[in-house]
What does this fold into?
Amino acid sequence: MPHNFDMTRSRTPGFVLATVVVFGAVFLTIGLGIVGYLLTMQRAEEDRINGEQAFDIAEAGLNYYAWHLYHFPTDLKDGTGGSGPYVHEYQDPEGGTAGTFSLSINGNLQCNSPTVIDITSTGATAGDPTLTSSVFGRYAQESVANYAYITNVPIWFGSSSTVYGRVLSNSGVRMDGSNLSEVESAVSSWTCTSSYGCSSNTNEPGVFGTGGNPALWVYPVPQVSFGNISVNLSSIKTAAKSDGGLYFPQASGSANQRGYHLIFNANGTVDVYQVTATTPVWSYSNANGWAQEYNIIASQTYLGNYTIPSSCSAIFVEDRAWIEGTLKGKVTVAAADLTGDGGANPDIILPNNITYAAYDGSDGLTAIAEGNVLIPLNSPDQMTVHGIFVAQNGEFGRNFYYYQNGGQDSVPSQYASDVLRTSLTAIGSFVYDEQGGVAWGSPVTSGYQTRSYSYDGTLANDPPPFTPYASSQYNIILWRQE
It folds into this structure.
């Protein structure tokens, strides 16, 4: 007789057990996944916190060295005298050590003096020293290269002028041209005279005129101290004589007939001539009125071709200096008489174009005159000058000339066509203590009919050695996270 089996009942215990095992495994997998996810999230959060703390500690390293430079501006070895990197513990305000920061310090040294200082600070927490964060900072004093113009006297930009860059006058500004950056005056009002195009002495706002961008006119602002801007010329002389630069002593002959003519070459050299005679012409300047000037070279003697030292690219001329050519590298030229003989403050004269071999920030010129920085009568019709030009006790400009056959104070007939020039393109900075200008009259009858002035942003953060500073404070001028 056949047996009747209840297949369902016989399979129930095993089926339930299998089901429990399967679902248990599923729940265990899910549970382990959740735990793993939570642990991963916790680890990620810990890494995020440690990363933020490492970043904060790295920032603290930059701030520490800013403080150090304020007190010890020439120390690039963290007070140790040894080589880096320099590691510091970062203390937790609540107690204990929060982590460390490590400093790598590199200074751009010229003539044994730093121009800019690059610092990389790497921070790490005590909780996870393997997780680091780095920040880079370039420290420097704000140089005058951040401005197109800094003057200690009023300044007038005519309708044919275009200015790209900040302008700052310790007195008033008349802006009839175009300005594409801030125009600042240190006074709330000033007296505009005929020298600045006003028919009678009138009281005007710190910045006024018919220029098209008055939203960028700012006044009053704090004065810039020309005492602080003034360069210690003796330090440049010492660097030129003792630290590897080039030095040229006072030339022989009368003061009006002598000086040095420097023609820069794109290969990093300079041809130097001693000026032995000049051609006098009559001109008018605000400082001296009508007088004969001696800025046209009549004869000169070749002295040689000199390589500009890369370790100390400073040239000191104890006399007048004519500068032109194409520069390679960052070079500073100073013209001053520190012999103590009581002579006049030497000028720097720009007889021709000044350009750079490259425009990537690797080349630049700073020209510092104890007296004036002047463009002579026989300058190019379309002139281009690049550089930072400082007239410590004088003006930047081109004097007033006129031609009239047989007229009193007229220039000689061979220079008649040089009186009125077409265009001047100036790229860099101009700093001067007395009233000057490169265009005379409205419309212009002497000088350059159109003028374009632009500051050089590539030199603002790393200028040539001994470029004067508008502030003695070291600041971060470039920052990035590494």
Notes: The two ends are 90 Å apart (CA to CA). The first strand starts at residue 86 and ends at 91.
